[in-house]
Specification:
Protein name: Pentatricopeptide repeat
Radius of gyration: 36 Å
Pfam families: DYW_deaminase, E_motif, PPR, PPR_2
Family: Belongs to the PPR family. PCMP-H subfamily.
Organism: Dillenia turbinata
Helix content: 55-70%
Strand order of the largest sheet: 4-3-5-6-7-8
Keywords: Repeat
Distance between the termini: 71 Å
Amino acid sequence: MAAFLSFHCHSLPLSSETPLVKSSSSTTTTTVSAALSATESAATTAKLGNINNPIEIETYTCLTLLEECNTMSELKQIHAQMLRNGLFFDEFAAAKIVSFSALEDSGSLDYALLVFTRIPNPTIFTCNSMIRGFTNKNLPKKALHFYEHMITHDLFPDRFTFPSLFKSCGSLDEGRMLHCHCTKFGFSCDCYVQNTLMKMYASCGCLISARKVFDKMENKNIVSWATMIGAYAEWDQPIEALKVFERMEIENVRPNEISLVNVLTACARARDLEVAKRVHGIIEDLGIGYHLVLMTALMDVYCKCGCVSLAREIFDELPDKNLYCWNIMIKGYVEDSEYEAALLLFREMQLKGVKGDKVTMVSLLLSCTHLGALELGKWLHMHIEKMDIAVDVALGTALVDMYAKCGCIESALRVFQEMRERDVMTWTALIVGLAMTGQGETALDFFHEMQMSGLKPDAITFVGVLAACSHAGLVDEGISHFNSMRNVYGIKPSIEHFGCMVDILGRAGEIAKAEELIKEMPMAPDIFVLGGLLGACRIHGDLEAAERTAKRLLELDSERGGTYVLLSNIYSSLGKWEEAKAIRDLMVKRKIKKPPGCSLIEIEGIVYEFTRGDLTNPHSSKIYEMLDDMICRLKHAGYVPDKSEVLFDLDEEEKENAISLHSEKLAIAFGLISTSPGTPIRVVKNLRVCGDCHTATKFISKVYNREIIVRDRNRFHHFKDGYCSCKDFW
DNA sequence: GTAGGGTTAG
């Protein structure tokens, strides 16, 4: 207690000093004094008359007016009256003045405090009003000081004192001391007090204490259950939350909306679809009518559990949607990789006149990033500026990432430079972006700058750094960063880092060293590590290592089409047609399919998708005309189709046709006819670019004098004047 | 009492 009372104490006289104005008589009528506030509302004037034309007021009228009072101006006039007629010295009436000033929205805490100091013998009721006032107006320190002073003046708390005090607790220490007081004064078995006590422990993050209070409660009400469930949900212990809910069901406690919202929050965190569906049933069984928050929480669980269409059904039936609803639904689509749907929903949101916030923007930018939709991304950036949405670290990072992954590294850099605050993620996004565009050296410069700025790189930053080394062919730097990761930053290399190292060594032709590293790794290699090695074997034509690696890869995942294709391509590129055919036959025998290649191109804000030999585009006939013209002009410039990567057993002419119909060629042809000369063409591909398309695109960039930026599964190819930024390594 | 966002290569 002594420690608790050691706060610095402001002077808060609970004195019996002479009030400012003393009653001069005990008459029951008087006139409105000249001390009235100058600002009078029309309503007050009607009730009380104005300053120059006072009317007489009786005490009982005063009390009635006090009940109906709406503004401070009215209150001050009534207060003045009460001072004249002596009513102020009535305990109940004075308490009313304090409680109005302290608790009403239109009130004034300063005034309440001033009045309080003039009350000769304040009661605990008045003190509680003050404490509640301080708490409600978010002045927790003042609430606690007031309480402290109150008890030193022998005014003792009642059961209404503690709930506000618990709400004003700033630390667990304060909370524990108040808990002691509460027990000492004998209120620790009051249900309301116990609920707020639980809430206090929960908001201090002390769930064990909250649970102790909960377990000790003899008379739990629905608020107790809801609070306990909410506490666990909030502090990311959803399983515990659901266990409490289960007990609540066993004890046949009828849930209310709030308790169900908390249960759903726990379901969302635990990804527990089953309980969520049960709650959905309960909502219907209990006949809880339409309840926006409850429906929103339910939508969120469905989204998080991958049932986006169920969420959408609820969403469509909501008569009034707030920003929560829109953001949850948009995020749901993004998480479900339905990026177009997310963007479409945003259009709908705009048509309804609902403004998005920064969370909405992050989700939408993420969609653009995945789709490679630079124009839409740019538009969103403008929209963010137009709508005055503050670009904070997360939104800025999303912008940097979007620009970088849409192949516009200059804009990514510009956003990065303009950001006021950057954290590890921001730097990492830029480093990875630079690495993907083949600007490995610049990426490493930024990595250096990041370290200079005092930020500590994390494991993900190092993935970017090593990728940069790999793309730039910087073997020694790669090894040195790999070592510093452990030695300087104490980050244990994970399989991702080993994968990058295998890639660095493999690209440099150090296949044996790469194989050695895989042997020494503390973990078993996964398909990505071995896939990287197999890719390196392809580049360097190392057949033996390729066969070894492919064998291990097929042991790990015999369903993976890419492995068969890569091995078959390696055979055919070395002229080993028999072996190549054997692999392809094996694929047919095992009924293994390669995922279909698909290319996206954005024209005037619309994303068009092409698959091999696609005829679904409305401009197909023009596209194929262009394609013929293109191939013809390329051949004229020296292009020779490379048919070694054709999977099917076709004759030579068919092979040539098969590769000329690759989705990226179609997308580029569409880009050429749909944009004005000189405009860069940007294509996003879901797989790696094939060797022939890579060669062809180099020729296109020269023949048609266009920059072509192709984002494939792993990186960017920036084609210009017949060259590619990947330096033919990918 | 409902969301709360951004960085991982191959």
